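Friendly challenge for the regulars: who can give me the structure tokens for this chain first? No prize, just bragging rights.
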Amino acid sequence: MITQIDKLKKFGIFKDYTPVTGLKEFNRFNLFYGHNGSGKSTLAKLYYSIGDKKVHSHFIAS
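First reply, four minutes later:
Bragging rights claimed.
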């Protein structure tokens, strides 16, 4: 089970993500909410990429 994301580079809105202190680890069920453009769908595509073991087609560099 994925409990946290330590770093993420060049993946959609996440150009150079590192976690801020105080974030809780992911649990079995998690709710992500936020404004449009805040990265919710990008996180879903990240999990798709991990599960499929390949980068989601939306993020493959040409």
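The chain has one domain: 8-59. The two ends are 31 Å apart (CA to CA). Your move, everyone else.
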